[in-house]
Write a structure and sequence with these properties.
Length: 727
């Protein structure tokens, strides 16, 4: 793919060592009506944003609108117990990460009248009860965000960057996803705008389209005093339901295919199952057999998946380059290279040559298919050297090839002498500049960032960061993407599924936004455009609300993210529903069979009343025992063998914090309803004394010497939950 010309500056980038002077320069350039675009997630230049925000707070004549997504805030907790738990953890894990002041004010309802924050994606569930955030949410496909910000008049774009080792180039690192498209559009329009880069030396230097010239920007803030630790969300535990969903999902991946996954415990569960399938295939198959997966869903697995280990390996193309990909790379699973050239990639797909064995046939095939001319031009030689087909130490001058030993030959492959000499002395050994990952942005725990920074440069070059438009959609580069994305599997999450196959993933039926659409719709739609591609929606079969358990599969729902005509594959902890191209009744049956058995009768009745399910339908016996305690009991035997640990990829939580965290989570569920709260309090009042084994836990929560009745009650509640063994 050709690189976009991001900026043709009249002047060199203006450098600043102080944030405030850069804020002055930006206001001087664009005026006081500022529409600021900053990246999703970790790429925000926090100190610059905070300084500009504080300037607007102090000067009401400045009209500031901030456009972004996924504004990250150090966890603090709401209740006394949550604060006692989270504050020491945050201080240890997030260290000097500077919170975004606009985010703190928005969360507390303190945004000034002259400042607005508009986002297209929230941290899941954070703003459910925040009217300001809900009113200013922008619902957009991820691929449309750059367009929408241009339409809304964005005139300042600020981005955290890092420098190349020689200081000559910059990398957009974790966030080229939208920035490069906004730059290109604003430059094309000739808009009076300001592009601001803030250097953070803690960012890993990433390749692909992330590499830009410093003169791409108008202003560059470079001062090591502004370096801060990247926001690293900690790993959370993986529950039984998620492990089962991951196990089912792992059976749908074909060796040699392409993989996209999301974030969180469901993604961790899938990565864990993929690793088990590859590293210990016998144990993996034993698991598959123990849960009857190989019999109940054999036809779907036979046609759309596999159970074997990975020989060719996978290619990863995901809007979010997740830390799970790190484990797949380290274990030789994510290793299938793709190349950004249609003819070259087609030759590889057709098996006409191997990446590690460059032969004369490659040159002749490239000529036959019009990729190069037999009378080589400079652009032909540059192309051949870029991909390693010709050696890097030869050169092209005035129609002649000059070799490292001083010999030369006319660059005309129609001449036998020239052809023979080029083949003998000029061919490379292996293809170069391939990629095993295409990513739009990345966000992950600290260990993930450390790995990226410390990995050898040649390995990091296998990760190509790109515009989200190059990843989440086919149009614009369809021919190449179709060659890259063989047997593509797109794994995403939803929280509600109707019995007719529609999914809700971003918002509730009352309109409140939980998170956002992000790239989910893009990937689902793309799966239907690829002949061997599939969209897989992962769904926990139940959810808790108001102290009660509810089915996540329902007859109807008042909001849809993915319409039912785009249905494909749905997975719960109870199995796989392969529903693409199926009739309404077939869809209803498939989804009832993977729903929680406590709700199957009602689901059947709803579908029958609507005339979508025959009155004499009976759920097959194999699907009538879908209960969480059944899964937990069956999984317990494998847990005893060391499988399915609570934190499969480690965590920043100490062992003490893990125990307390489980207890607090259990207490939150138990006290979610008035009756549950009363019952929990009454039981806690029976607790007397502090068990010595729990003293360190209570000290961690500052409850070893409680002050006042409230702290004494919290102490008793926590002791009882920790002591119960059910935490």
């Amino acid at each position: 793919m050709e690189k976009t010309n991001l900026r043709k500056p009249e002047n060199k980038v203006q450098k600043h060592t102080e944030i405030e002077s850069c804020v002055d320069a930006v206001i001087a350039k664009v005026g006081k009506n500022i529409k600021l675009g900053i990246p999703l997630g970790a790429g925000k230049p926090n100190q610059f944003v905070n300084a500009l925000y504080e300037r607007a707070k102090a000067d009401s004549s400045i009209d500031l609108t901030i456009f972004s997504a996924l504004s990250l805030e150090k966890p603090k907790g709401a209740s006394l117990l949550e604060k006692r738990f989270m504050e020491p953890f945050s201080a240890r894990v997030f260290e000097d990460y500077p919170d975004l002041q606009y985010e703190l004010d928005r969360t507390s309802g303190a945004l000034p009248a002259n400042i607005k924050v508009m986002e297209f994606y929230f941290p899941a569930g954070k703003f459910m009860s925040n009217p300001e955030a809900q009113r200013n949410y922008i619902s957009s496909n991820y691929t449309h965000v750059a367009r929408d910000l241009i339409d809304r008049g964005v005139n300042v774009v600020a981005q955290m960057v890092c420098k190349s080792p020689d200081g000559e180039q910059l990398s957009l690192s974790c966030n080229p996803d939208v920035t490069i498209d906004i730059f290109a559009a604003l430059n094309a329009k000739g808009t009076n705008c300001a592009f601001v880069a803030q250097v953070n030396n803690n960012l890993p230097y990433m390749y692909g389209d992330a590499i830009v010239s410093p003169d791409t920007f108008h202003f560059l803030i470079d001062n090591p005093a502004y370096d801060f630790k990247l926001f690293g969300p900690p790993k959370m535990s993986v529950p039984v339901a998620d492990y089962m969903i991951g196990l089912y999902a792992s059976t749908l991946i074909k060796d040699g295919g392409e993989l996209q996954v999301g974030i969180g415990s469901l993604a961790d569960a899938l990565i864990y199952a993929i690793l088990l399938r590859h590293k210990d295939n016998d144990k993996y198959r034993r698991l598959i057999h123990a849960f009857n997966i190989d019999t109940k869903f054999s036809e779907t697995i036979r046609r759309k998946g596999a159970l074997t280990s990975f020989k060719t390996g996978l290619f990863g193309a995901s809007e979010m380059f997740v830390d799970g990909f790190m484990f797949l790379m380290q274990n030789g699973i994510l290793k299938r290279k793709v190349y950004d050239h249609v003819v070259l990639q087609r030759l590889l797909n057709e098996g006409l040559f191997q990446e590690d064995q460059i032969t004369p046939e490659v040159l002749f095939q490239l000529i036959a298919r019009g990729a190069i001319r037999p009378q080589l031009r400079k652009q032909d030689v540059d192309f051949l050297q870029h991909f390693g087909i010709l050696r890097a130490d030869l050169s092209f001058r005035n129609g002649w090839i000059h070799f490292a030993d001083g010999t030369q030959v006319e660059a005309d492959l129609n001449q036998a002498v020239a052809s023979d000499m080029l083949i003998k002395k000029g061919l490379g050994n292996v293809l170069k500049n391939g990629a095993i990952v295409h990513g739009g942005f990345f966000l992950g725990p600290t260990a993930f960032y450390d790995w990226l920074r410390e990995m050898p440069d040649e390995e990091r070059q296998l990760i190509h960061m790109k515009s989200v438009r190059a990843i989440n959609q086919l149009y614009g580069h369809e021919e190449l993407d179709r060659l890259h994305r063989k047997d593509a599997r797109f794994f995403n999450t939803c929280f509600t599924m109707t019995l007719l196959g529609a999914a809700a993933s971003d918002a509730l039926e009352d309109g409140r936004v939980v998170s956002g659409v992000g790239g989910q719709y893009n990937f689902v739609d793309m799966a239907h455009a690829l002949p061997d591609g599939h969209s897989v929606l992962q769904l926990r079969s139940t959810r808790r609300s108001g102290g009660k358990v509810h089915s996540s599969i329902v007859w109807k729902y008042g909001h849809v993210t993915i319409p039912r005509h785009l249905r494909d594959i749905v997975i719960t902890e109870y199995g796989i529903a392969d529903i693409r191209g199926k009739t309404d009744e077939e869809i209803v049956k498939s989804l009832i069979q993977i729903s929680d058995s406590r709700f199957q009768a009602q689901l059947m009745a709803d579908a029958q009343q609507a005339g979508k399910l025959s009155a004499d339908y009976q759920i097959p016996a194999a699907y009538q025992n879908n209960y969480p305690w059944v899964l937990a009991e069956k999984l317990a035997a494998f847990k005893a063998e060391g499988l399915f640990p609570a934190f499969p990829f480690g965590t920043d939580f100490t062992e003490t914090e893990q125990r307390i965290g489980k207890a607090l989570k259990a207490l939150k569920h138990k006290t979610a309803s008035p009756s549950g709260l009363l019952t929990t309090i009454l039981k806690a009042l029976t607790v007397w004394g502090i068990p010595e084994a729990l003293r360190s836990d209570l000290e961690r929560m500052q409850l070893d010497q409680p002050k006042g009745l409230t702290e004494k009650l919290y102490q008793k509640m926590l002791i009882r939950e920790l002591r119960s063994g059910k935490a």
